[in-house]
């Protein structure tokens, strides 16, 4: 099994949904986590109680806020403690619209620290109005998801940022669609964001290598005749497994264009038959070795651990890319280094993918481009032999 950092996923828990219909609204979580949504409104100099003891929350010199619960599935005591936590973050100006944070929160029920993702969100129309008129008294929402550990939830922070953006179109001051749209959406956060990787691993098993290879190669993937949730799970996994944000943006764009132009390289995942089928899919030893870490992982496929394995997978791919680029720079002046490049590509298990990436990155560098061309010839000859 490929090596990688391990960690304790921490407690993952669920409770029944409790709805508190005060003057505002809060959200809920899924079966394996908790969630709350608060609304804050700037109120001039008014101070509002937001702490367990009843003391008024400290505010900045310029303005204050009120914090009201909309909906939650937390017990009353834990909700009050969470409200105090959110109020302190708002007072310090530690929340930015659309950018979530993760921290540990110690609640009395249960008596354990849990990971808490929290994000400030403003509905789309009011956000536009506030941009035009800075003095507008527009409500803002703080969404909290609790479950697992801080380190575990941190792995999913970007996924959760994307997820909460889906609330914007359904947020309204009257909360008219709270029960029909907002609450069901928030209730599904754990299943949709965290457990999707678990479902993909269980669905594909050994065929997961095809997905990993497609993600690393930036190959377009078409999913045919699947249900909507499965398609979203696959899209989310491909996005998470790609090296987007870890390699140069220009490299990623060029690879995407190149793969899209090669129509015969479109990977098709077909669910129309009794068993799922891949068409035009590729794989390599690197991806095949890593699927054992996913399939045979500890704790029965704990999603937090599976996501950590995926992060380690990408980290190893980046390390291999950097090693190859270093060898190529050496090979520009040293024939022995060229041989080292070849041996590295032959033994790393992902030479096909690495060559595509460095070829695009070195397209405007004549000497490096020549080295890559020679390496491609070596690899073709080896494949034929």
Automatic annotation (TrEMBL):
One GO CC annotation: trans-Golgi network
Domain of life of the organism encoding this protein: Eukaryota
Region (Disordered): 30-54
Gene Ontology biological process terms from the UniProt entry: vesicle tethering to Golgi
Designated name of the protein: Protein Njmu-R1
Species of provenance: Alligator sinensis
Gene: CUNH17orf75
């Amino acid at each position: 099994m490929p090596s990688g950092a391990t960690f304790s996923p921490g407690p993952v828990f669920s409770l029944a949904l409790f709805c508190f219909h005060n003057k505002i609204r809060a959200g809920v979580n899924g079966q394996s986590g908790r969630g709350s949504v608060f609304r804050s409104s700037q109120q001039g100099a008014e101070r509002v109680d937001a702490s367990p003891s009843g003391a008024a929350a400290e505010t900045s010199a310029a303005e204050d806020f009120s914090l009201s619960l909309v909906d939650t599935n937390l017990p009353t005591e834990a909700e009050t403690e969470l409200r105090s936590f959110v109020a302190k973050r708002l007072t310090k100006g530690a929340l930015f619209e659309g950018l979530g944070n993760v921290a540990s929160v110690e609640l009395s029920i249960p008596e354990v620290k849990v990971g808490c993702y929290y994000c400030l969100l403003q509905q789309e129309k009011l956000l536009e109005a506030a941009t035009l008129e800075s003095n507008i008294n527009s409500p803002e929402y703080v969404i909290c998801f609790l479950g697992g550990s801080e380190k575990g939830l941190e792995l999913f922070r970007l996924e959760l940022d994307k997820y909460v953006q889906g609330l914007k179109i359904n947020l309204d001051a009257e909360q008219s669609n709270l029960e029909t749209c907002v609450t069901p959406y928030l209730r599904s956060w754990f299943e949709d964001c965290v457990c999707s990787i678990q479902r993909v691993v269980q669905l594909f098993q050994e065929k997961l290598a095809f997905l990993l290879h497609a993600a690393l190669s930036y190959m377009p993937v078409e999913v045919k005749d699947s249900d909507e949730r499965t398609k979203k799970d696959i899209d989310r996994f491909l996005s998470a497994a790609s090296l987007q944000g870890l390699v140069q943006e220009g490299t990623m764009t060029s690879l995407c264009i190149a793969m899209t132009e090669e129509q015969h390289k479109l990977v098709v995942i077909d669910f129309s038959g009794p068993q799922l089928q891949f068409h035009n899919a590729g794989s390599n030893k690197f991806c095949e070795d890593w699927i054992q870490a996913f399939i045979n992982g500890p704790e029965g496929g704990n999603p937090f651990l599976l996501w950590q394995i995926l992060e380690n997978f990408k980290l190893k791919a980046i390390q291999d890319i950097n090693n190859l680029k270093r060898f190529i720079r050496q090979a520009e002046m040293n024939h022995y280094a060229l041989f080292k490049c070849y041996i590295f590509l032959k033994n790393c298990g992902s030479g096909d993918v690495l060559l595509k990436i460095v070829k695009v990155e070195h397209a405007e560098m004549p000497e490096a481009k020549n080295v890559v061309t020679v390496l491609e010839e070596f690899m073709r000859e080896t494949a034929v032999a």
